[in-house]
From TrEMBL:
One of its GO terms (biological process) is intracellular calcium ion homeostasis. Keywords: Membrane, Transmembrane, Transmembrane helix. GO terms for cellular component: plasma membrane. It is found in: Membrane. Residues 12-128, 195-342 form the Sodium/calcium exchanger membrane region domain. Coiled coil: none annotated. This is Inner membrane protein YrbG. GO terms for molecular function: calcium channel activity; calcium, potassium:sodium antiporter activity. Residues 165-189 are annotated as: Disordered. Signal peptide: none annotated. The lineage of its organism: Bacteria, Pseudomonadati, Pseudomonadota, Alphaproteobacteria, Sneathiellales.
Length: 345
């Protein structure tokens, strides 16, 4: 494989574009497979979205952050992960526009998705707090890293528990689309075939993520762009493309809970990018190498997630273009934050 970082910006741009297209096409197919897997296994759309769709579509971003951290580009590694979380949360507004019947957060009422959102806030808070603790490491890994992985697993278990044995839940209205398994046509693929397809597509997405990472590093080295800008606005958006595609595709298929669950579950998985980057970063704790701009992105992600959770709780039925107050707030928060980052140049 040619050394993209030693070439000019144009070859890096071509590789970046090709990898982005591969991620886009892979994401479309992943939605169909995960939606069917949710029905076949009985996991439910929220858990299947968090575990399979969110993780599989996030592999490209994971590889990007790990490669960048391994090469010592801390700002790029962190901005890619954290910028992806903010961008993917914003994608729910696009999904809301694609669903014309009601506000998506009203129709996709799910206790499991609310749990995922709260776990995401907890993981982001741990990430932010880690930088204010002693910079102690074991084998070059900060203690916050295994804590993040443990919280992710706890969140999956808790989300599954509240789905199978809920103690309370949202009231159903005519606009609510509850998550109920649907039977497939005769001869539909079984669980093994679906998992194999998801794994194969995940591999394609991961390889494309490596190429995007190399291209992003070339933009920094050869193009003179700031790492934070490249991470938050270039690689993060490119590696988050599957989430946009799969979210809109899920809404069009009527899998509303899967759409929201894929975003929130994917965002929880994206926090693990930082933990994986900490393992790849060999110069100490990556949490203590976090600059002010990356901390700003963490706070942005927390704020956007809280707004989304409020939308799931408030369940506004209709708004301008069927977008609730939370959708308008997400657009304002993300647009304002990106303008601040660009102005900091």
């Amino acid at each position: 494989m040619p050394d993209i970082q030693s070439q000019s910006v144009l070859p890096a741009l071509l590789v970046f574009t090709a990898a982005s297209v591969a991620i886009l096409l892979g994401g479309i197919r992943l939605t169909r497979l995960v939606d069917r897997l949710a029905d076949v296994t009985g996991l439910g759309e929220a858990i299947a979205g968090a575990l399979f769709l969110g993780a599989a579509t996030s592999l490209s971003g994971l590889v990007t952050s790990v490669v960048a951290a391994g090469d010592g580009y801390v700002d790029l590694a962190l901005s890619n992960a954290l910028g992806g979380i903010a961008a993917q949360t914003l994608f729910l507004v696009a999904a809301d526009l694609a669903y014309r019947h009601a506000n998506l957060e009203h129709a996709a009422a799910s206790l499991t998705n609310m749990v995922s959102g709260l776990m995401l806030v907890m993981m982001l808070t741990v990430l932010l707090a880690a930088g204010h603790l002693d910079p102690v490491t074991f084998l070059g890994i900060h203690p916050a890293t295994p804590v993040l992985f443990a919280l992710y697993l706890v969140g999956l278990r808790l989300g599954s528990g509240v789905r199978t044995e809920p103690m309370w839940g949202p009231a159903e209205t005519p606009e609510t689309r509850p998550d109920r398994p649907e039977g497939g046509p005769e001869g539909s693929p079984g669980t093994g075939s679906l998992l194999a397809g998801i794994l194969a597509l995940g591999l394609v997405v991961a390889v494309a993520g490596y190429l995007i990472a190399e291209s992003g590093l070339a933009f920094v080295r050869l193009g003179g762009l700031r790492e934070t800008v490249v991470g938050a606005l270039v690689t993060a958006l490119a590696t988050s493309t599957p989430e946009l595609v799969t979210t809109v595709a899920a809404v069009r298929r009527g899998a509303l809970t899967l759409a929201v669950g894929g975003i929130l579950g994917g965002n929880c998985f994206d926090v693990l990018f930082v933990g994986a980057a900490d393992i790849a970063y060999r110069d100490g704790s990556i949490y203590h190498a976090m600059a002010g701009e990356q901390a700003f992105l963490v706070l942005l992600s927390i704020l956007m997630t809280v707004v989304l959770i409020l939308g799931l709780v408030g369940r506004q039925r209709h708004g301008p273009g069927n977008i609730g107050f939370e959708g308008l707030a997400l657009v304002g928060l993300y647009g304002g934050a990106m303008a601040i980052l660009l102005a900091g140049g």
